[in-house]
Amino acid sequence: MAERASQIAGHLNYPKGLLAGQVAIITGSGQGIGAEAARLFANEGARVVISDIDAAKAKGVAESINKSGGNAIAVVGDMLDAEYLKTLVKKAVDFGNGKINIIVNNAGYTWDGVIHKMTDKQWDNIIALHNTAPFKLVREAAPYFRVTDGEPRCIINISSTSGVHGNAGQANYSLAKSGINGLTKTIAKEWGPKFGVRANSIAFGHILTRLTAAKEDGAFVTTPDGETIALGIPKGQGSQSTDANLDIPLRRAGTATEAASSILMLASPLSSYITGQVIMVTGGRNI
């Protein structure tokens, strides 16, 4: 224990960055919170694997990191494709010279509907994307986390206040985000004792992304079978309403960079004794 404490203390100078020498997979990092997290990780010395279904955006983030002096590669594919997950892990290991230190399960979107109108497809798609895919990725990467070489390793799962408090119109998303919190705690209990792997969830509140922007802005995703899903919230409703921030003590939404900073915090040695937690990043909402 004293040796570990000494190692942590030695990190306090961070001469080469908080994540120097570590290898991180960040899913859904072609834009938004994921892209910001990738840039922050790279700035702190990590070798970052950009995972996204959008090839142009993923490659753009990787290129911007490399041009800024960081190290990143883009591995493009669909998180719902089991073969892609195998490729993602293999390429991450090759890029990281045989190791992976961090997985950030961030990929996802919302496909809202009230309970009595929600289709099986809406339900199955969101559960698969936010629960099954992260589980399969973690399982695929297990050989690189269940090791005793003394290196830091952690898994950060992106959740939501919908998974803690529920949210009208989001039965599928609320269940999925609650489920990822359960997976997080299970990883912490299974892989913490012998291997020292930390696992935490971050439950975001109102963060400025395409999921909380006005639906009229036209953001969308396309499912593997070609169906288009409109993203965002209609103007005047929810986080688009004039009084949307009145129940937030800070009286504003969070930025993608602020959200990404909380991911960096949990990945860093500053959080070396934090595991199995659901960290609320909400500007104080729901306290």
From TrEMBL:
GO terms for biological process: abscisic acid biosynthetic process. Residues 22-194 form the Ketoreductase domain. This is 3-oxoacyl-[acyl-carrier-protein] reductase. Its EC number is 1.1.1.100. Pfam families: adh_short, adh_short_C2. The lineage of its organism: Eukaryota, Fungi, Dikarya, Ascomycota, Pezizomycotina. It catalyses: a (3R)-hydroxyacyl-[ACP] + NADP(+) = a 3-oxoacyl-[ACP] + NADPH + H(+). The keyword DNA damage does not apply. Keywords: NADP.
